[in-house]
Amino acid sequence: MSNSSFQYPPMFDFPPFFTRQVTESTWKSQVMQWENLILAYTRQKHIFRLDLHQATTPGGNEIFENKKINRRLSFETLQDIIEEMARKGTAEWEGGSKGPKTEALIYWHTPEDWANLIWNWINETGQNNQIVTYYEIAHGELAEGQEFFELDKAILSKALNILVKRGNAQIFKGTDEDSMGVKFFGPL
């Protein structure tokens, strides 16, 4: 996670970049450029979800507004971009595809990638065959400095469920989500 300022692509200063293009091939290119920008920005800023209403209001999110050229991406265009990202697996609508499309999880790492990162960390830190809480994984001292530190709870759950399906872990219910435990199986 870097605290340096974000480097915007040259396209960011091109006014049509903020308006949905009508030609299909141009739109596809525009979506790809927005996807790359969103993924790079959210990764650098350690952002895991976007509230589309908040992101597209004046002053809402710096990557969807360029004050220098007085342009801002519309809510509807961002919705269309996120929809395309969801089709590719780099985003997912919160609440699935049936709910209101106003909040999205952003996958600069897929849940599968997060599962691999967590599994590698568990093995490197010798936490196999013991119970670790969700809180310890996402916020614990041992997790500091890891890419998954402060990982969104919804994405953490998806990643841990992948490890359960692989037979690498078992989830134990707690009184709340933070106190839920996970036992990771591995060599003694």
From TrEMBL:
Q: Which Pfam families match?
A: ESCRT-II
Listed InterPro entries: ESCRT-II_cplx_Vps25-sub, ESCRT-II_cplx_Vps25-sub_N, WH-like_DNA-bd_sf, WH_DNA-bd_sf
Instruction: Kindly state a single biological-process term from the GO annotations of this entry.
Output: macroautophagy
Q: Name any one GO molecular function.
A: protein homodimerization activity
SUPFAM superfamilies referenced in this protein's UniProt entry, alphabetically: Winged helix' DNA-binding domain (SSF46785)
Q: Where in the cell is it found?
A: Cytoplasm
- Output a single Gene Ontology CC term carried by this record: ESCRT II complex
Q: Which UniProt keywords apply?
A: Cytoplasm, Protein transport, Transport
Record-stated family: Belongs to the VPS25 family.
Tell me what this protein is called.
Answer: Vacuolar protein-sorting-associated protein 25
From which source organism is this entry?
A: Mucor circinelloides f. circinelloides (strain 1006PhL)
